[in-house]
Amino acid sequence: MSFEFAGVTKEACIEAPGYRVKESPVHFECEYVQTIRIPTGDPVSAVDIVIGRVAQVHIDDNVIMDNGKLDIKSIRPIARLGYYDYTVVDQIFEMKAPAATKEELAGLEGRNFDNKSE
Question: What InterPro entries is this protein classified in (predicted)?
Answer without folding.
Answer: Split_barrel_FMN-bd
